[in-house]
Amino acid sequence: MRWRMAFVALLGLLAVSGCAAAADTQAAGYNQADVRFNQQMITHHRQTIQLAELAAERGGSAYVRDLAKEIIPNEQADIREMSGWLTSWSESVPAEETAEEGAQLRKGAGFDRGWLTMLKGHLEHGVHMAKEIQTAGKHAPTRRLADRIIQVQSGELTAIAERLAL
Fold first, then answer.
1. Contacts of 111 (CB under 8 A, 6+ apart)
2. What pLDDT shows up at residue 50?
3. Is 0.90 topped by the overall pTM?
């Protein structure tokens, strides 16, 4: 009986502390959706960088090489910003992954088309993620970042679609 009461009390304390943690994030100007988005977008951006690095080396056209070289510093800047927010919230920053995005693409004929097709799908996913945080997020800087991601990547998607249509 005593163990049962202690267990119930412990569950109550855990529930209260969980609610307090959620309340703390709300009072701090961000919520768990902001945390998840930033963590997932850091991983997503790292994958984009891996794709871009591959194209910077193997791209057959100036368009693909230039796009890749433009993407890398922009994504790195976003990662630094999101990592800073997560750190300031005492949340974990995702570790680097060793898997290489796009490794199956070989230099030579067809690389550019395959890379652009892969990048297109990847950017579409990023835009989808950014649109979701616009309604679920509370952190104004995260929402502004999401707005910028949607704007920039939508422009890139339009240019890529035009390039693939050639």
1. 55, 58, 59, 60, 64, 105
2. 92
3. no
Cα–Cα distance measured from residue 97 to residue 90, given in angstroms and rounded to the nearest whole number: 21
Could you give the CA distance from residue 147 to residue 117 in angstroms, rounded to a whole number?
Answer: 23
pLDDT digits (tens, 9 = 90+) for 73-106: 999 999 999 999 999 999 999 998 876 777 777 7
- What ranges do the domains of the chain cover? 1-29, 31-165
109-125 mean pLDDT: 93
From CA 18, how far away is CA 106, in angstroms rounded? 49
In terms of Cβ atoms closer than 10 Å to its own Cβ (0-12, 13-18, 19+), residue 61 is middle
Q: With respect to CATH, is domain 31-165 assigned 3.30.70.1560?
A: no
